[in-house]
Design brief:
Number of strands: 21
CATH architecture of the largest domain: 2-Layer Sandwich
Helix content: 25-40%
Radius of gyration: 23 Å
CATH class of the largest domain: Alpha Beta
Strand content: 25-35%
Number of domains: 2
Number of helices: 10
Amino acid sequence: MSNIYAALEIGTTRTVLAVGEAETGGRLKVTSHASIPSSGIRKSQILNITQAATSIKSVLKEIEKHEADGGHSLTIGNAFLVVSGQHVKIDSYQGSTPVAGAKVRDDDLVEAMRSSRGWTLPKDRELLDIVDQTYTLDSLGGIASPKGMSGRILKLDTLHIHADLNRINDAKTAASEAHLEIREPLFAATCAADAVLTDHERRNGALVLDIGGGSTGYAAYADGYLMHAGVLGVGGDHVTNDIAHAFQTTQAQAEEMKIKDASALIRLQSEGDARVKVPGASALMESRSISRHALDTVVNARLREQFSIIRERLEELDLMHRLHTGIVITGGGAAMRGIDTLIQRELGMPVHVGIPIHVDGLAEERHPESFAAVAGALMYAHRNYEQKSLFQTIFGGLLK
């Protein structure tokens, strides 16, 4: 029986669960996926455990129903957790070891890696990933493979990605109340990058922007490895809040206007559709209208600020000139009208929407880019747990 994996994302605006199965030849297929509006979440953090657990139960039921409709019975016992939010931090750390002989050998590489894992993680943090970058041999840096080279001191640069332990524990508690065990937490932005980037983009430089409801994660790649990553505590919910405040609407009204009418670009007013209808808060309340130009202006201001901050961070690290293939956008926010053009203007490089290319099963999805992070988490599970069975699966009562 093929191995089956699950990935869970408890986002600000929606809770997502996806199931993947290894196909013949080693490729992964997303066999089921479901998403529902989240409850009890704000700015990518759980504020109400019970409500979050209810959301998780709902997506579990959706998956089970989908499998039942296909004649299968699937019990999901655990899942990998996709983590986003401003509480995710990235620290650089350099491991170091003396070269035992005249030239670098395998043992030296092992010692450099062991030393690079020596960074002490604060007690209130949970490690999500350690990413190896390049080696330095004496004063020569940027080495991809130092084996056989001569030198005295070998160093390995790494990135340590970690999150607030309490926030991870809250997610585990909510999942546990839904009878789902969290297998391992993973960083959303790098998961999304794994799903959408080609080898060419990794080598020649690319920036992945994973735009969610409560935050935007980013991951910059060049020369085949992760150069830098981070999270900006601004997402689609902040745009909704701005609309609600500017036009004195409810959150639900503002969200509907954002999805149906708003644009990241300020469009020219044209006769006939220069105004946007604001739906009534209830069936008994009359609707009104606002200027479409004014709506776009509010949205544009928030998004321009968001992407200018990311640009400043990359410029501080002297990374902008290394992103030769441009920017790939993923997450639910990637579907906003005009956002690709706005990002291209603000960051000055080509932009395209990131469709998961390393997994099958999402081709019919209307917005596959919104499933990039969970698709990448499934890929991680497949790579690292290929020989382990994570779930008890019953197909037609034949297998137990």
